[in-house]
Every structure is written in C-alpha cells, then in structure tokens.
Amino acid sequence: MKKKIVILGSTSSIGKSLLRIVEKDKKNFKIELLTANTNYKDLITQAKKFNVKNIIITDLKSFKKTKLIIKNKRINIFQNFDDLEKILPKKVDYVMSAISGISGLLPTFKIINRTKLIAIANKEAIVCGWPIIDKELKKNKTKFIPVDSEHFSIFSLLDNKSTNKIEKIYITASGGPFINLPKSHFGKIKLNDALKHPNWSMGKKITIDSATLMNKVFEVIEAKNIFNINYKNISILTHPKSYVHAIIKFKNGLTKFLIHEPDMKIPIYNSIYYQTNKSFKNSPLNFTTLNNLNLKKVEENKFPLVRLINKLPKNSSLFETVLITINDYLVYKFLEKRINFQKLIKLILKISNLKEFQKFKKIKPKNLKEIYNLRDYVHLKLETLGI
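Above: the chain's sequence. Below: its structure in token form.
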C-alpha cells in the first residue's frame, strides 16, 4: 500500500529535496496535498508531475492566478488551511512541514491531527510555539521527527532513550563565511560576503543567520524544547567542515556523535523512511575530515549573539517570539542594505534587551493568536524606532 504524504511548503528547498526523493520511489508514495505561498508556477508544475489532487496557495494574488491557469477540475485549489478535514478525511502517514518563517506555525499546528507522523523543518513552530505544538502532538498521538540536521542527529543518537541519561549535548556550527575572519575586519563585511556560506546552500535569510550564529541560538532553544533539557546542558562547538552534527555525552561515561555529509537530503530521507531499512546512496567516510574535526568553543567576541542564550528564560515564553521577530526584521534590513553587518548584531543585542520586550520572558504562550499578535506588536514597535 502506498504511503500517503503531505508537503507543506513544497516549493521551498526542503520541499523540493523531498520531492526528488519521492520521484525516485513513486510506486510507494501518494501525495495528497502540496502547499505554497506565492510560488504558484512551481506548485502547479509539481501538482501535475506528481498527480496531486489538492493544492493550497495562500497568497491571494497567486491563488487567483492559479485558478485562472488550472482548468483541470481534478485538482482542488484552496487558499488557506481551513478545509484540512475535507482535504484529508483520514489521517495521512507522513507530513513534512517546510514552510519558512512564523507563517508556518499555524499550518503546522492545524495538520497535526490529520497525520500519524510529522517531520518539522519550520524553526518557528518549535522556537515560538513548542508548548502548544507539543500538547497537540500528545493529544493526537502524532509522532514527531525534527528535520534540522543537528536535532535529527540528537534524535537518532538518543533512539528513544531517556534524556535523563544525558550529561551534555553539543551542537555544531560551521561558523559560516567568517569563521576565520579576524574581528578587526568585520567592519568591512559586505552583503555578498555574508551570503557566501562555505558548506550549505540555503535561502538568503537563513544564510545570514548562519553568518551571525543567530541560527545556533535558535537551535539551542529548539534542542531545549524538543528534548526537555536545560540550557546549561547544551553547548555550541564550531566545526568548519559541518561533518559532525551533534555530540551527546551520557552520564554513564559514553559519548556518541553523529556524522554525515552537509546535505539536508540525508535527514529528510531518514524522516520519510523512518524505521524502514531503505538504503541511501552516499559518499564513503571522509577520513581526512575525521582526522581533523577542528571542534572548538565559539569565539564569543566575534559572535556575541550566542551570549543571548545565557539570558533566555528557563521555561518557554513569549520572549522567543520577540527574539525571532527582532532578528527577522533586522536581517531583512541588512539584506536591503539599510544597515551593515556590525549594526545588525549590535541592534539585535540592544533591542532584545529593552524593558518593554524583556517582560515577555515571564509569559508562557497559551495559543497561536497570542504569538501572532505579539509578532505584529514587535514589528510595529521596531518600525516606530525608525530603523
């Protein structure tokens, strides 16, 4: 019997990677739903290629264009996620949540009760809304797999073992394009320099987050949430080759680490073939890299954003939404060349420390509306600052 799957954000890099995997094994998969925001051309192409009956295109203009283009009545076109029970009357086997940004939080939440297993690549769902997402997962007995290479590695190393046995988790950071650049040269960094990631091919926004190491701040929050472990038990190590993705030191004296090539297809592949013995064609072990892992503590003077971890509240709070919103807003200002690289880092540190935002550290998120309202509030406050 074919495995029924859904891809939220099928036109994203992760969505496209998953479709390439499915294409090689079509006989074992049936795609029930594909979604996108504005990229209607790719979405239409995907729907036709994989014979998909249902698509969602959330941007209104793109939705109208899609309706004009698709004359095939066998393809149902929706503009939002309100009709998921109609689209998916029975639980599917697998969902990939690959919508980027905080807009992916609501679809991720809504589809949990329509699937047996969900693989989440949407960072904001785990950083901002984990108490809500986790509650929904447990309520519907839906299996969850993290897709970020670091968290998938931790998940794999634990293999359903209790996190009480962990002494320390180490997640690795390539250090981006500036790992070997002296701090004295940071004032000369241009946008194109920051977009040249040495190992990963990603979208512009996440590439900048990698250059500042802000992505690792969020990944530490994700690790704390997913594995229910204190911040003091999580550390970041720089590792320029991106070959080791996670290390776990256990209380029994054992230490395990997981390696694979810097290729997101590997965690994606293992999420869709979870608990099945399906071979993946990959490269032989790289002994040259293994003999020179070059694992080091982060140079906080060069990458001061990692210090934000020490100021995070112990329990999940609305402050994480504040932090995500501030970072998103300022990164896009940098991408628009409104601020330089050093200003980007200084403003994130300065603005996140404002009293009017610090108060949210004491408030636990209760629902998604609260998170979205706070996102809008922070965005408006940032605009009033005239950045």
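The chain has three domains: 3-146, 148-262+272-304, 313-387.
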